[in-house]
Each structure stands twice: as structure tokens, then as C-alpha cells.
TrEMBL record:
TM regions (residue ranges): 59-76
Taxonomic path: Eukaryota, Viridiplantae, Streptophyta, Embryophyta, Tracheophyta
Pfam family, one: Tom22
Region span, Disordered: 1-24
Keyword Ion transport applies: no
Gene Ontology cellular component list: mitochondrial outer membrane
Subcellular location(s) per record: Mitochondrion outer membrane
Stated name of the protein: Mitochondrial import receptor subunit TOM9-1
InterPro entries, alphabetized: Tom22, Tom22_pln
Alphabetical UniProt keywords: Membrane, Mitochondrion, Mitochondrion outer membrane, Protein transport, Receptor, Translocation, Transmembrane, Transmembrane helix, Transport
CDD domains linked to this entry: TOM22
Keyword Lipoprotein: no
Membrane topology: Single-pass membrane protein
Length: 105
């Protein structure tokens, strides 16, 4: 059974040392050209992903600020114009003028 430390934790048994044959196979596999190409492909994919995320964020920022600067004031002005036309129609009906159909655009 594993020895316990003073704090109440359990320490793991010591690792077995790897044999020479296992380490040489591992060294041959990690130094193979297929593994090197795989690592390079993974690094390239990560680099492209970071660039894509960064450029997507910039594009979203540009689209959002453009919307705020150009479209929101247009929506506010259109709403204001509709409220004004409804007010004119209400005032005309209170004064006794014949109701007219609102101008359709």
C-alpha cells in the first residue's frame, strides 16, 4: 500500500523506468516525417484559425459601428415621421376635416 503523507494525502508509487526498447520505438515514432508533417499541419491550422477569428472580430466591429452610425438614425427618423403623420391625421379628425388615407410609400 502507498505511504501516506502528514497532510492526509496519498502518494503514488514510483514509476517504473521505461525499457530501452520502448524508448527507442517512441523516439523513432516522434522523429518520423509523418509526425513532423502532422505537427506542422496542426500549427498551420492553428495559425489560420487565429487569423480568421481576429479578422472576423474586426469585420463584426466594422459592421456594428456602421449600423449604429447609418441605420439607427434612419430608423429613428422614419419613426418620428410616422408619429408626425399620425398626429396630423388625429388633429384633422378632431377639427372635423374629412379623414384622408395616409400616404403610402
Amino acid at each position: 500500500m502507498a505511504a501516506q503523507s502528514k497532510r492526509g494525502g496519498v502518494s503514488l508509487p514510483e514509476r517504473r523506468s521505461a525499457s530501452k526498447a520502448e524508448s527507442s520505438i517512441l523516439a523513432r515514432i516522434t522523429s518520423s516525417p509523418i509526425v513532423s508533417r502532422g505537427k506542422q499541419a496542426a500549427c498551420d491550422a492553428a495559425f489560420v484559425s487565429k487569423k480568421l477569428i481576429r479578422s472576423t472580430g474586426k469585420a463584426a466591429w466594422i459592421a456594428g459601428t456602421t449600423f449604429l452610425i447609418l441605420v439607427v438614425p434612419l430608423i429613428i427618423e422614419m419613426d418620428r415621421e410616422q408619429q408626425f403623420s399620425e398626429l396630423e391625421l388625429q388633429q384633422a379628425s378632431l377639427l372635423g376635416a374629412p379623414p384622408t388615407a395616409p400616404a403610402s410609400k
